[in-house]
């Protein structure tokens, strides 16, 4: 009888534990959300990884149409800004370990780094439509490119720390110098060492060759380039890149 009693208690205990596990599993199942990822979203995530993280897809002219809604959500839904903040936090941490002298410099790209062309690309389905040079020029000649607030934060931090900040752009000096300078000043980019635009001397050169030549000239003036920030891989390739380069995201277009 004693043995039967012990067996009975053991069975009851096991049944209770099984019931408890079932209840916990049921609570977890009911509280968890099923994440459904469609084929287009998977394609977008893989495509963005290929073009942004490791530069495996190059050159490319337009964003695949099946990525349209996903790139729109990325650029306007908060993830783009979140990614920028994470990158800029890393840049600021790196810069905080340097005690700059008068010769320590940073290079910042202008278009879609300091100031944004998202309003133009919105009308072009965020890069799914081909680039339209006359329409784009009409947009930038308005001088209404908004600041990229995350990069503006970085810019002000570098200035406050005492770095010499050079703003380097592929825009042509002959036609866009004043418009670009006024646009930058209006958006809060004040206190940089120099704004450098493409002169006729560099007309027709690739972005890599042009920006390499400018960085070399800066170093020949006695500056040490501590960091180089841009949204295009061509901002970060070539010669005289500086001690560190930082790529910020831009899945809307590719400059070769």
Automatic annotation (TrEMBL):
Family to which this protein belongs: Belongs to the APS1/VSP family.
Protein name from the UniProt record: Acid phosphatase
Keywords: Glycoprotein, Signal, Storage protein
CDD domains in the cross-refs: HAD_VSP (cd07535)
Physiological role: May function as somatic storage protein during early seedling development.
InterPro entries: Acid_phosphat_B-like (IPR005519), Acid_phosphatase_pln (IPR010028), APS1/VSP (IPR014403), HAD-like_sf (IPR036412), HAD_sf (IPR023214)
Source species of the chain: Trifolium subterraneum (Subterranean clover)
Organism superkingdom: Eukaryota
Signal peptide from the UniProt entry: 1-16
